[in-house]
Amino acid sequence: MPATIGQSVNASALDTPGVEPATARRVARYAGFRPEVQGLRFVAVLLVVVYHVFLGRVSGGVDVFLLISAFFLTLSFVRKLEGGRPLALGRYWLHVFKRLLPLAVLTILGTLVMVAAVYPGSDVDRWRTEALASVLYAENWALAFGAVDYYAADHSTASPFQHFWSLSVQGQVFLLWPLIFAAAWLLTRRGTRRPVPVLVAMFGTVFLASLAWSVHSTATQQEFAYFDTRTRLWEFALGSLLALALPYLDLPRAARVALGWLGLLSMVSVGVLVDVQGAFPGWIALWPLLSAAAIIVAGRSGSPFGLDRILASRPLVRLGDSAYALYLVHWPLLITYLVLRDRPMAGPRSGVLIIVVSLVLAVLVTRLVEDPLKSWAWPERNKRRLAGVVLVCLALVAAPVLAWQQVEDRRAAQIQADAARNNPGAAALEPGFEFRGDPDAPTLPLPEDLPKQPASLGEPCPEDLDLPEDHRRFCHESVAQEAPERTVLVVGNSHLQHWLPALRPLAEAEQWRVLTWIQPGCFYASAEDQPGSESCRAWFEGAEQMIGTTDPDLVVIQSTFTDLEGEFLRPGLEQRVRELTARGIPVVGIRDTPRFPEAPAQCAVANGADDPRCTFTHPVVDTPDPALPLARELPLYSTVDFTDLICPGGQCPPVIGNVYVYWDDDHLSRVYSESAAPAFGRRLLEALATDGITR
């Protein structure tokens, strides 16, 4: 984090002409450069780097950064409040971001170059978006709403901009905290109350409220909570409370020596002794923060055995000046190395090399970029110039990212316009098919669109269905009709959802209304045969009411279930089918699609579609559908098998008809499902005909 806030002051306020002695003494309490805290800054960032590179765990170093940032910021504003000086919030905000943005922009642009050069194409669109979010100090929210797992063991799949989450939180606090100081100024400017007690009450309230929310949110939605600014405010508040209390803490030398070393030992050991996965940023974050607070309270002991002799040493203070740059550069270097080597973690030698290169690069960019810009006097002459520098920095990222995105959008639009000719998909399996498209046409969906391939469920549950409010979330209307010839109800999980694009053209042609009762990961079998989630139990229990409310002319279910080893009928499914057909409701069961140990499309993107490693097989291939005996027994039940559309000739290739068949390891891509619509429609109508159901 940057060493920009309140690290140095002018000569003692006691010597300032025209300042009352009492005021000068109050200002002096919060004055003075603290080199040991600057050294602590470097230790904290080094912890982050080492834990990222070698352990893949949370060290607490980032939390210490946040505390130190608030500590210095508070010292700076309290001096203004106690000295009666204007807060000048507009100039403060412009000045802070003028100093933060240049190195951030340099890192973002350098990372984008590496993304364009070596990163998988399937992720590029996401990284462009995160680059923009990073420069706008919103990366933490992008990650939170993107359901990113900060603790993922394989760092090679992580975003090269992921570390900007903490800088984004910090930037947001740099906007918020001055408003708290402004509120304190309003409360104290005409009364007898002093700013410090008012600030203690205000930051104490923030501390308690945010910590309570952090503990609750971490327990209920940890992945989101990790990046949530609200769960981090208490860490900043603790730094502010520490800054306010520090002048009143006067410990003996021996106590300072002991407190400093104990604080360091505690701070360094937290990530080793405690498995914090799933626990941050809840109460466990107090451990590294209180450890750092102990080091700050120990301060300058004046003892030859004090920790401050090391932290305040010239080398560590100078490295502390480069801590912001070190934090910025180490993560994209690490992630890029892992992408190039296709490894989940760095090894001992490569890890040491990454750390050394990061240190050297951090020192260089600090001296060659950050320091000259700090001393650049021209922007400081007025707010307009400061604002100009900030806007230029933002534009240096926004302009290329948006231009790149526009070029890609135009390319995608042209590819889509030619898709009928160049990307036939399942149509290539039709007898007598002859490909007449461009042999060099890109495969669809484009790699960057693969993560966006889950099929749409359609519109929310229509109002004419009488369902409890808590069940309506499972209900959608996939195909609406004003005067439907037939109502079709699809009941199942995501392995039925991925066939919806193939069903829609048939439903529209036949004037069918299609309603869905779908919940990923759940099974239409028995109450006991559900995962442990409450949502699956609620979904299964509500299925009977959905069937009764819709009174469907046809129910479509998933007839079999696959795993990596084979295929089976889930306990209870036969009973569900018998109950429905006994009530006169026709049922069609769709045989499950194969599941693979990895995503064939991702393999093809990385290695080429012709690489044998990307073509799989599965026990369902060339074996009878286990649901056929039940279909022969029950007149109103029939099954449909589309395995040959996925694994023609007994092999399951990643690409058919220049279309990726799957978007992950077990779900059809939306593009391929759409291309299978003619075959899907024919076979479904044939299945209905065997049940004696006509159009």
Characteristic key phrases:
elongated; disordered N terminus; Rossmann fold; 695 residues; alpha/beta; two-stranded antiparallel sheet; single chain; seven-stranded mixed β-sheet; 2 domains; 27 helices
Describe the structure.
- This protein is α/β, with parallel strands linked by helices and 695 residues long.
- The chain has two domains: 13-401, no CATH class; 447-690, Rossmann fold.
- It contains 27 helices and eleven strands.
- The protein has helices spanning 21-29, 35-55, 61-83, 89-118, 124-135, 139-145, 164-188, 195-220, 222-227, 233-245, 253-273, 286-298, 308-311, 314-321, 323-341, 348-374, 383-417, 419-422, 494-497, 500-510, 534-550, 573-582, 600-607, 628-633, 643-646, 670-675, 677-690; strands spanning 459-460, 475-479, 486-492, 512-518, 554-558, 561-562, 567-568, 587-590, 637-640, 655-656, 659-660.
- The strands form three sheets. It has a seven-stranded mixed sheet, with helices on both faces. It has a two-stranded antiparallel ribbon with strand order 6-7.
- A hairpin with a 2-residue loop joins β10 and β11 (659-660).
- α5 (124-135) crosses α6 (139-145) and α15 packs antiparallel against α16 (348-374).
- The longest helix has 35 residues, at 383-417.
- The model is unreliable at 2-18 and 149-156 (pLDDT under 50).
